[in-house]
Amino acid sequence: MPLLAVLSGAGLMWGCASTYSIPLPPLTPNQLTLAQQEVQAQANEGQPFRHHVTDEEATSVLRSAVEKIGPAATRLCHEMAVGECRWTVSGSQDRSLATTIGPNGSIVINRGIMEYAANEEEVAVVVAYGFAHHAANHFASRRRTQMAGSLIGTIVVTAVSIVVPPLGMVTGLIQTAVESGANLASGALVASYTKDQERESTWLAALILYRAGVDLEKARGMLVTMARVQGDKDSGMMNTQLSGPERLAVWDEAVREIRASNGRLPRRP
Q: Are 151 and 200 in contact (CB under 8 A)?
């Protein structure tokens, strides 16, 4: 699939030194058990369905998802006022169920996301994760690790994380991120996000979709698929990322809270 850039946000960096830090309660054993049981039941049915998509179809669904949730994500980003509110989303030919988040609001979504997605809502949740990580300033706060070449502190988000972008030119930076993704997958950078940041990005992704009017139940299907592929394992090194069932349980709790508050952003502690 040719690299793609889709315009979804405009703005500048807001307070790069801090993150938003939503006060999220820990999961209860019952919440996690229910999520684990659901994932296991799905896993017993075999591997998730993977369908063929043409370049045109992959580009169309990614662009549509970004355009649908971009305005809501941009407004939320400015409301939070701590992170990067200008994003560039690109597509790559990589067929793995993964995305790459880079500096300056860059997000690369692999073709595998579109192949596994059952609908546009499932692509939208991946894009929303990317917006959420940048809006909460997660990337900038973890960018101390330097890499050779034009990428500094690029983070590879494996099957559990996710993301997105804008209309403009695809730069060599994005191309480099795509080409180096496979090599980064086994490196320490995979673990660059903490569990708290992963939980926070899950909460914010759900909020973005809620405010954009996206069907949250349909979007949830991608998290189930990722959990099935990932299994009841940690997604990164040093136990810093959520397991598939954990992410699903966090999502369900976030949706309950967001609906109860009618989409209000919690105040920072």
A: no
DSSP for 6-54 reads: EE-----B--TT-------PPPPHHHHHHHHHHHHHHHTT-SPP-----
Task: For residue 198, report the phi and psi dihedrals to the nearest 5 degrees.
Answer: -65, -40
Rounded Cα–Cα distance for residues 41 and 30 (Å): 16
Q: What is the DSSP pairing of strand 106-110 with strand 6-7?
A: unpaired
Helix (H, G, I), strand (E, B) or coil at 100: strand
Tell me the whole-structure pTM to 2 decimals.
0.77
pLDDT digits (tens, 9 = 90+) for 164-195: 333 332 333 333 333 333 333 323 233 357 78
Cβ(152)–Cβ(146) below 8 Å: yes
Contact at 8 Å (CB) between 201 and 135?
Answer: no
What is the rounded CA–CA span in Å between residue 140 and residue 231?
Answer: 29
Q: With CA atoms as reference, report the closest residue to 162 among 232, 219, 233.
A: 219
Give the Cα separation of 103 and 143 in Å (integer).
8
* Cα 45 from Cα 135, distance rounded (Å): 37
Is 158 strand, coil or helix?
A: coil
